[in-house]
Amino acid sequence: MIRKAKIKDIKQIQELINTFAKQDVMLPRSLNELYENIRDFWVMEDKGKITACAALHIPWDDLAEIKSLAVAKNKQRKGIGKLLVDACIDEAKVLGAKKIFVLTYKPGYFKKFGFKRINHASLPHKIWAECINCCKFPNCQESALLKTL
Ligand SMILES: CC(C)(COP(=O)(O)OP(=O)(O)OC[C@H]1O[C@@H](n2cnc3c(N)ncnc32)[C@H](O)[C@@H]1OP(=O)(O)O)[C@@H](O)C(=O)NCCC(=O)NCCS
């Protein structure tokens, strides 16, 4: 079942994200960042355990962002990532966003949902404020992709 995250899920969400971050396939998230942005998060709960998550963030104007998409290794390729991406896209539409983007190491995955590669520089300056604080800056290999809603 996918649902919006609750405070009690945060530590499991961090464990899930940071397991992949250690493998360099996504960016790590601090507990502080996760608590402050809890209302962005969707999770998949399976027998009381959080097995997947994704966040829908609104950084600016009519622009939405999918962040922190992760599905536990033993739950991958079962359509859970798709459920979460679709939930984020639907939520962005309900909020009135006109475009949705993602910064990712897996551009091929997001292309399946109609995202198209764009130049990082075309994103609002505010996005760069977060990049500057990232441990990967300035050597980030993430691709930027955007979908019009
Ligand atoms: C990338 C990830 C989120 C995919 O989640 P998932 O639940 O395994 O994916 P789904 O089962 O929903 O796959 C949906 C479709 O995408 C395909 N797909 C899955 N992983 C893919 C990848 N890395 N590249 C391209 N296509 C992929 C599936 O084959 C499926 O295609 P189909 O509909 O034609 O059968 C998951 O592998 C993951 O968490 N990886 C580690 C963290 C990570 O890399 N996150 C990326 C976001 S920054």
Automatic annotation (TrEMBL):
Molecular function as annotated in GO: L-glutamate N-acetyltransferase activity
Occurrences of domain N-acetyltransferase (ranges): 1-138
SUPFAM superfamilies, alphabetized: Acyl-CoA N-acyltransferases (Nat)
Keyword Transferase: yes
Domain of life: Bacteria
Keyword list, A-Z: Acyltransferase, Transferase
One of the protein's GO biological processes: L-arginine biosynthetic process
Protein name, entry field: GNAT family N-acetyltransferase
Source organism per UniProt: Candidatus Sherwoodlollariibacterium unditelluris
